[in-house]
Fold each of these.
Amino acid sequence: MDNYLEYLVQDTDITERIDKFLSQRESELSRSTIQKLIEESRVFVNGNPVKSSYKVKKGDLIEITDIDVFDWDIVPQKMDLDIVYEDNDVLVVNKPSGLVVHPAPGHYTDTLVNGLMYHINQLSDVNGEERPGIVHRIDKDTSGLLMIAKTNKAHNILAEELKQKETKREYIALVEGVIKNKRGKINAPIGRDPRNRLKMAVIANGRPAVTHFEVLETFQQKSLIKCILETGRTHQIRVHMAYIGNPLAGDHVYGSAKNTDFGQFLHAKTLGFTHPITKEFMEFDSPLPQPFLDELEQLRNQ
């Protein structure tokens, strides 16, 4: 089951409530789940959120976004994880590009969480059964460092540090175009794209989002930059860089690149946080993945 569903009402004699209409057509979603999605404004008709009492009519375009239904068991899977650090409370892992962080509808296995469950049997459950240990996420096609919480105490402390913008997160990205300014700050709110709810976009009523960037190297038609996140919105760097006209190289969603096995050239290189128990500040660094290095070498040789 996908994280997004879309229906175009074509029946001419439909007069039923939207919760009943959807529960009859989507076997994996119970009526109570559909009502919950409606209450949380995740069901849209013709681009607008509706109430359960809304009666559908011919021509209505119904969209359900951010579906998060969890009714399966996570299967531990043996994986060759790149664990950078581990103790009794936290774990830092270097995630490769192409690996989904946690199970979701339609993708129940072959995620980082499946691998973590095989590696250890103790992870926090603050974020629910489907996201054990996951304090923050990076996209499937983004590589780099993630902090994992083994206990709920550690999870809550790390999450609060993130909320207070005290966690150090630095990314390296290759973007399209030559950026003339050496440094920049993008302060633009991000929310669900009203024209395509599978994407995020800069919109007036979005959540505050701030990205700082520094140009490290320029090529004929691309720039290598370092990004520092002040906030952590979904697809933030990808959306912000596309917004200023410099989408990430390899990003087929927010840029014009073709879909490739590697995905966008974005790597979570540096991660720093205060240890939740010892209170020691810890900082970790990870090398760029080989395909990223190969791309840079090719650009330097042109």
Note: Residues 5-64 form a domain with the Structural Genomics Hypothetical 15.5 Kd Protein In mrcA-pckA Intergenic Region; Chain A fold (CATH 3.10.290.10).
Amino acid sequence: MRKAQKAVNIRNRVAVLMSPPAVMLFCFFILPMMVMAGFSFRQGSFGAARQVLTLEHYREFMRNTAFQNLLLRSVRMALETSVACVLLAYPVAYYLSFHAGARRNILLTAILVPAWTSFLLRVLAWKMILSSDGFLSSLLVTLGVLAEPQPILLYSRAAVVVALVYSWLPFVALPVMAALDRMERSLLEAAADLGCPPWQAFLRVTLPLSLPGVAAGFLFVFIPTLGEWVTPALVGGVDGIMYGNIIQSQFVQALNWPMGSLMSLVMLVMMLAILAVLGRFAHHLPVEGVFE
């Protein structure tokens, strides 16, 4: 009887603790998604057209291959950004976890300080660096590489990837470092006692045990950058436009809320499909719980 009463009390506590986040999730995520899904079937954004249901926007999206190609291009750019962030952040996290010592807090603060400033200001700073009057162009002119000042990578796909990698790099280094900190150092000592060289111990012990942090960092970058539109608008130009820019233009400039809602839902479905594929792949990794 006491065990049953204890189980009921635990369930009640869990329900009380989970109710506020569940309500917030429903109000600020699920409910807006439902409203947006309903809007995708409307004929227009305002007036009488808003009350008419139609599938014309779905037909238009299927006919317009430019939207689909841009979505695939944005997925590739998000994957490139995520992979680049992981490759650059892993050595930083490894050094902070294993070799930084007393300098760890100072170096960690130096990594986080740029993230304390506005995201918009950091992107604008890259726009100034890559412009014809920026630091990079002036340096190349001084070194004699360029005969006259000119933009470097500005208004291109590469500029978007560079700015995104810079902006999201700390969000990858932190979860990787946390995963490395949780690793038992005695495992490396055991590997050394068994005659395992350092590089082999890294590949067979350190890297597999850090995969949960790598996966978390990868998702921290991939999910927001897939729908990014601020960075492409500032440094991408025509060549660096992403899917999020078209969605933003449908809502703000074209005032075509049904098409914007539909394109947002398509991006959400695409993201969920990619995450499902990554989650299925994670079950074959030598580490359990990477995506759990």
Note: The chain has twelve helices and no strands.
